[in-house]
Amino acid sequence: MSGLSGAVETVPVSDLHALGSTDPADFAVPGGREEEWRFTPLNRLRGLHKDAALTGAVTVDVGAAPEVAVEKVTIDNSERVRLTAAGSFLPTDRVSARAFAAVTEATVLTVPKEAVASAPTYVRVTGTGTETAAAGHLVIDVQPYGRATVIIDQRGSATYANNVEIHVGDGGDLTVVALADWADDTVQVAHHVARLGRDAHLAHYAVTLGGNLVRLSPTVRYDGPGGDAELYGIVFADAGQHLEHRLFVDHDTPKCRSRVGYKVALSGEQAHTVWIGDVLIRPEATGTDTYEYNRNLVLTDGAHADSVPNLEILTGEIVGAGHASASGRLDDEQTFYLQARGIPFEEARRLVIRGFFGELIARIGVPDLEERITGAIEAELS
Prior knowledge:
disordered N terminus; two-stranded antiparallel sheet; single chain; 45% strand; 16-stranded mixed beta sheet; globular
């Protein structure tokens, strides 16, 4: 595969993810009728899907654990080839391909073989304005039996298209937290593409709170049996926000596991969330164990949640496969129970919502970050 020739890869069994290319010209400009774009308000993308110049910049600062190596790599044509030579990253839509073609510098984090990071590594991305769109590229490479936590902390104002490559080698263990705590005027379209080696584990958290429009597409593929992917989402949309998450788990290897759990709350007029969960179990992926769910808590009139789980199974020799989706309002019995014990309604409401998100927040395992996320959600409620 060559990053210069616009290498195209076809997947014969799943039309939604059939095309991959490094050449933006291989993707038609979306018109809104395509399945992968039908929920996205294209008129709010500021031309990221068309031809907006990706000549702006964001600030990227890394606070790395002592065991983690950090490299800033200037991207030219030869380096683009190197980044795609292993076949670990291939854009699957026009915005991702445009970002990959335009980026001039990549941040590369490497966790050496058998190294155990003693602290989380923070990648702080700060937008400096929305007028000119920017492209970004981050690589997280966990070599065999390495262990690390990486937090992508995104703030400020931006028009931003970015890609994140995640490689977890055999026996490796990685936690990634992508925190979108943008200012209210930010538009972001992001793709996270992960490959897991034999017996590797990835826990990926999408924490999406800020921004005008944020669309995140995580993809997972497996390079060996025993791979285990956990994809979690904590999402709060308020008035006018469009927050969209489109996941694809490609089970193409025997005896791998995936778990997907997204919890979403919406409050305010025209708050809109979209969750698409695509899981493909190919004929060769015997022994697969997968389950996904999305739960949406609609707090006010005028808010709307779209939820579409898709499960494509091409072999009967699996451990298990299932999906669930639910949308509803606050449980009156829970709030009544708390009010009956002297807790005012607004505080009871806050406690119920804290409990709704609490299980997923507690999984992250970084106390300072957990407190920040909890505080941000409570600030949204107030």
